[in-house]
Each structure stands twice: as structure tokens, then as C-alpha cells.
Amino acid sequence: MTGLLPRPPLKVYLVTAAAGSSFLEFGPLSTMHFLAAAFLFLALSASALAEPVHFKDCGSGVGVIKEVNVNPCSTQPCQLHKGQSYSVNVTFTSNTQSQGSKAVVHGIVMGVSIPFPIPEPDGCKSGISCPIEKDKTYSYLNKLPVKSEYPSIKLVVEWELKDDKDQRLFCWQIPVQIAG
Fold first, then answer.
1. How far apart are CA 23 and CA 139, in angstroms?
2. What is the CA radius of gyration of the chain?
3. Quick check: pTM over 0.90?
């Protein structure tokens, strides 16, 4: 191993600020390692928060779903608590062009489809840069609010995103349990 310099020893200093608080100061090489480790930790923590769920594709006609994340939903059926809101992130690839998109959400109870209103149905205001282009991958972001007046029940959530020709960019279903 000729040509390699020996690694300098780790220098750690305890520095006390005027107010009495203290922090650690690392040497220059160690600072770079510390920042890299901190970045890696934050990236892994963020990805741990995004929880992919097993979903059923219910007819994504002009798009392909890559992944569906509902946060928090660590087990299925997802336990949705009344009065809370859940983040939904769908990564999909469009197979068509569209000037806009609109989300339509339903709860399916014993085979009956019931409209499930969401705060922002406009996909172009939900993380998608419009116009939508063919063969481009998008990350759709929205919220699923669970109102306090909803009954405690098991159901299937069906979430569609339609293009400007009313074709499904994506459609997915997941089982949920609404609880008090």
C-alpha cells in the first residue's frame, strides 16, 4: 500500500459556549464522515416513514403504478383512526399526455361504492407537474382525512386519478379498518 498516507487520529474537542451549553467538535476528516453518516441516517429515516402497501390495481388504463405508500399504515388492513389524516403517495408512469388530472376516491362497503371526499381532487395541485407527459414517472401526493363522524367499519378504499379524457391514469384499492 505505497502512496497512502496514514490516517490522522480522530480529534474530538468538547467546546463550551458562553451560555454553558456544550457540543462536540470533530477534526476535518471526521466532520465529513459525521455529515455523511447523518445524511444517511436522515435518508433511511425518511424512507422508513414511507410505508409501501400491498394494493390491488383496479384498472389503471393509461398508466402504470410503481408504488403506493400510505403513512402511517404499518399493517393491512390499514388502521385509520377517526379525526386523523393520512398521507398518500402514488408513484406511477403515464402512458398518455393530459393537460390535467382529477382524483376520485370511494369507500366500498359490502360491494356498494360510496364517495369519499378528499381536500384536493386536482392532481396538478397534488405533486404532479402538469401537463402530464407520456412515458414520464410522477409522484402523486395527497391526504386522506378520516372524519370523526365516520362509522367504525372495515371497507376498501378505491383511489383513481383520471386524465382530461376521463381515462384512469391509475386506480388502486386497499383494505382499511376505520377505528375510534
1. 39
2. 23
3. no
C-alpha cell at 52: 409501501
Alpha carbon distances (Å) from 47 to 40, 112, 145: 11, 35, 22
d(CA 76, CA 56): 13
Task: Answer yes or no: are the C-beta atoms of 128 and 101 closer than 8 Å.
Answer: yes
- pLDDT for 14: 39
Alpha-carbon distances of 68 from 37, 89, 114, 180, rounded to whole Å: 28, 6, 21, 25
Q: Which residues are within 8 A (CB) of 165 and not within 5 positions of it... i.e. 6 or more apart?
A: 96, 98
Confidence of residue 50 (pLDDT cuts 50, 70, 90): low
Q: Which residues in 10-33 are b (16+ Cβ under 10 Å) and which e?
A: eeeeeeeeeeeeeeeeeeeebeee
CB 154 within 8 A of CB 127: no
Q: What DSSP character marks residue 87?
A: E
